[in-house]
Amino acid sequence: MKIFIDTAKLDEIKKAISWGIVDGVTTNPSLIREAVEEEKNAGKTVNLDSYIEEICSIAGKGRPVSLEVISQRADKMIEEAQALYKRFNNIAENVVIKIPINTCTEDAITDYEGLATINKLAKKGIPTNVTLIMKPEQALLAAKAGATYVSPFAGRIDDHIRKNLGIKFSKNDYFDFELIQECSRKGLNEHLRKLAEEKISTLYHDEKIRELYTGRKDNGITSGVDCVRKILNIFKNYSIQTKVIAASIRNSRQVREVAETGCDICTIPFSVIREMLKHPKTEEGVRKFYSDAHQAGYNELFNL
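Below the sequence we write its predicted C-alpha cells.
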C-alpha cells in the first residue's frame, strides 16, 4: 500500500519524505489555510503561489500532489483545474486535481457537475482525485467518468454512523464497528425470540427488527473501512483501473484495517504516522536494551 501524507505543512512533508515512507501528498483548501496561518503566526510572509510551488517541489517528480478546485459548476471547476495544472505541474510534473464527487448544496446547482468535470479533464489528460466519496456508488460513477483516483472518506463515514447511533466520540477515536455489530446482533436475536411465532411478512415490517438490523449501517455500509473494501471489490469485479485512496484517516488502527483491505493508497495525517510508530512495549524494550548496553560497556565499542 502506498502512503500519501495528508497535509500542506512544509516541515511535515519534508520530514516524512526524509523517512522514506511517502509516495505522494494530498492537500485541500482547509489544510492549506491551516498551514499558511501557522506560517503567518510564526511571523513569516507567505505568498500562496510560491507556497504551493514549494509543496510540489518538495514532493518531487513521481510523488503526486493533490490540489483542489473551489467552485461548484463544471465550467468553473474545469477552468480552475486547468489553471492549477498549467501553473504548478511544470514544477515536478506531479499535480493531480481534486474534484468533489458532488458539488450540489442548498445553494442550488445540479448534482452532476463533478462528473462532468472529471470526464472533461480525463479527456484533456489531466489526472483527477475525486474527493468526498461516502459510498461505493459514488466511487463507481467517478471511475466510469475517468477518475485517476477516488478517495472514500473513511473517518467521516464512521462519524456519520456514530452520530446516527447517538454514540459520543472525539475526532480521533477508533470506531469499533465490530462491537456495534455484536451488540446489534444480540439485541436482534433477543427480539426475534419474543416474536418467534410471527410470520415472516410481519417480521419483515417490524420497526424494531429493522432498527436493530439496519440502524447500525449507513445504507448497508458498516464503517469507513467497509466502504473502502466494497469499492475495491467492485473495481476488482470489473477490472477498473482507478486507484482507491483511503482518506479521512483518524488513527493508526484505521490505517491497519484499510491496509488489510488491499487498498492502493492511504493518505495519512502526520500525527497519525507518528502514532503508527508508537507502542509502550517498544519503548520499554528500548529502555531495557540501552540500560543493559551501558552496563555491559557497549558504548566503548563506539568510543562514546
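The chain has two domains: 2-168+223-279, 176-220.
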